[in-house]
Amino acid sequence: FYGDVGVASNLKAELLAILHGMKLAWRANFRNILCISDSLLAVNLVLEPLDVFHKYAPIISHIKELLP
User: Fold this and answer.
1) Average pLDDT over residues 5-13
2) What are the recorded GO MF terms, alphabetically (predicted)?
């Protein structure tokens, strides 16, 4: 994945990469996918209940919408 996220943290880049990959999979009609990340923090943010006050809550929420 390559994209311009501007000036951002590595966490934002990780979350955007997860979101981009999931969007690509959904567009290709893949629903049973395995997402692997080297960022435990990003994985935990996606798997745990959403903190609506988190800096990246909109991105995390969008990822969660794509989860089964």
Assistant:
1) 87
2) nucleic acid binding; RNA-DNA hybrid ribonuclease activity
